[in-house]
Specification:
Rossmann fold, seven-stranded mixed beta sheet, 15 helices
Length: about 350
């Protein structure tokens, strides 16, 4: 099997990821499940497959022992994100297949309230969730909506660049870590001198990046970013607890002031086994939420979200209940995904065949 044949197979079978490793079988991830293929390329064939997506400079880095992250458009018009690394003295590559076109909010199952967030003039919007939960796609949908609807200057900082945005109503400059700029924190600081309206930071990995993002939001910019957290409350704790102790009170106050919203999401297998569906928790930066953050009452945030459906908020359990009621996922899938299964059990019992959607 050639690299092109492997990609064609992955695309035709709706796979999200492909794994190539010297000394073992090829593998793909489909609807969240890993499948080991029968094909087992030789070490040389596996290396050739991996090198197909690398430049000569990147091959030199790999051969010197470094890991390499790349974003590429492959011959069949599909964009990929790949990480090339070493394991047990062999070369390996993990490839994420990106959607050919950036999907609309409705196609992703995202609520209309996110369109209001996307047109905010300043503040921070965070998309959170585990690896493979579609955070990048959600962020891309937000940027695409901005691009089509408002005349703004958007600067993205990514590692690597994934989706490409053609200029529409907005002007979008995309910077890649390692190619255009050295680090997220430096790019954020530099961006403030580049007349942006909106700054997208691929990931808030460290305190320097978090601090720079909050500063950008405080100085009148809209900042979009991601974190690997599973709920709004956990996201807030991660932001604050990840700061130096002497800075936590300041970061708490700054974050409470500038938070616009947190979208925590997961991708779950559908009940029929033929796809995945997005489930999410939406927290908005209302005065009530800001007060809870300032008063360090983070444990009360899930209750505040659950009681504010009228303004567009809902908990993960609210959304899981909706998806079970619509028959899109099984109860077992919902229970496995819930971070509070006891509460979900009660909600499912009370709501019965609850269905419907979000406005």
């Amino acid at each position: 099997m050639t690299f092109e044949e492997l990609m064609d197979y992955a695309i035709s079978h709706d796979c999200s990821d492909v794994h190539i490793t010297q000394g073992t079988n090829l593998a793909v991830r489909r609807y969240g499940m890993l499948h080991i293929l029968d094909e087992r390329p030789t070490a040389e064939e596996a290396q050739d497959m991996i090198y197909t997506i690398l430049t000569n400079e990147e091959i030199q880095k790999v051969e010197s022992g470094l890991d390499v992250d790349v974003g590429r458009m492959i011959d069949n018009g599909v964009r990929i994100r790949a990480n090339v690394y070493h394991q047990r003295n062999n070369l390996a590559c993990s490839i994420r297949l990106l959607m050919a076109e950036i999907p609309e909010f409705e196609a992703l199952g995202l609520p209309e309230v996110l369109k209001t967030l996307a047109t905010a003039n300043n503040g921070i919007i965070l998309v959170t969730g585990p690896t493979g939960s579609g955070k990048t796609t959600t962020l891309s949908a937000i940027v695409d909506f901005i691009n089509k609807n408002v005349a703004k200057h958007v600067i993205t900082v990514e590692d690597p660049i994934e989706y490409i945005y053609p200029h529409n109503r907005a002007m979008i400059h995309q910077r890649e870590i390692g190619r255009d700029v050295d680090s997220f924190s430096y790019a954020l600081t530099s961006a403030l001198r580049e007349d942006p309206d909106i700054i997208l930071v691929g990931e808030m990995r460290d305190f320097a990046t978090i601090s720079a993002a909050i500063t950008a939001a405080e100085t009148g910019h809209l900042v979009l970013s991601t974190l690997h957290t599973q709920s709004a409350a956990q996201t807030i704790n991660r932001i604050i607890d990840g700061s130096p102790i002497e800075m936590q009170a300041t970061i708490r106050a700054q974050f409470a002031h500038c938070i616009r919203g947190v979208i925590s999401q997961q991708l779950l297998p559908t009940a029929d086994g033929n796809g995945r569906v997005l489930t999410h928790e939406i927290m908005l930066g209302t005065s009530a939420i800001k007060s809870l953050i300032l008063e360090d009452k983070i444990q009360m945030i899930p209750g505040a979200i659950a009681s504010a459906g009228h303004v567009g908020m809902h908990t993960l359990n609210n959304d899981l209940t909706r998806l079970v009621g619509m028959g899109l996922i099984t109860k077992k899938t919902a229970m496995d995904a819930a971070y509070d299964p006891n509460e979900l059990e009660k909600l499912l019992g009370v709501t019965g065949n609850f269905g419907g959607g979000y406005l």
